[in-house]
């Protein structure tokens, strides 16, 4: 069961990463026209569609590489709980990040870093919501590996980094962990029921 889920997780995150690279190649071939067309433009109605499309777009190969590697690792780990939980974690992070940028952002914003921060936050807090020591141990290991990411939620003036995308993506990940926390089992069973699979 776990081996099959791991194969599905790997296939899913690799296909998603490949999609990001295909979109990037098309975008580069068109002179980055898609950035102007589909990036998030804060507080402009015409930029609202960027909430959906902006995470698929990146400024250059370096920007995309910096998001691809953590997406592969964090996405794989999140998917091991099941496709539905993965979809909720990604979807909540994606939407929260995009809406946060649209409301509070400072300029045209693109990139999947909000989803990266969302998955990171989801994986960090879900074990505490679920009272699951294995998930907490994984959170500690992830914090050791990627803990410096958390600085990205703080304002960084004079850079092209969207701390708003990072902050609201992380909040979306925390919300996803709360939405997906295991429900208490009926009295007398001593078990917790999963929320979604």
Question: How would the blueprint of this fold be written?
Answer:
Layout: H1 2-29, H2 33-38, H3 50-53, H4 61-79, H5 83-104, H6 113-130, H7 133-146, H8 163-179, E1 183-184, E2 192-193
Antiparallel strand pairs: 1-2
Helix pairs in contact: 1-4, 4-6, 5-6, 5-8, 6-7, 6-8
Written account of the structure:
This protein is mainly alpha-helical and 197 residues long. The protein has one domain (2-193): Rhomboid-like (Rhomboid-like fold). The protein has eight helices and two strands, in the order ααααααααββ. The chain has a two-stranded antiparallel ribbon. A hairpin with a 7-residue loop joins β1 (183-184) and β2 (192-193). α4 runs parallel beside α6 (113-130), α5 (83-104) crosses α6 and α6 (113-130) runs parallel beside α8 (163-179). The longest helix is centred in the first third of the chain and has 28 residues, at 2-29. The chain is globular, with a radius of gyration of 17 Å. It comes from Arthrobacter subterraneus. It holds the Pfam family Rhomboid. InterPro entries: Peptidase_S54_rhomboid_dom, Rhomboid-like_sf. One of its GO terms (molecular function) is serine-type endopeptidase activity. Keywords: Hydrolase, Membrane, Protease, Transmembrane, Transmembrane helix.
Highlighted features:
197 residues, mainly alpha, Rhomboid-like fold, Rhomboid-like_sf, globular, 2% strand, membrane, two-stranded antiparallel sheet, hydrolase, transmembrane helix
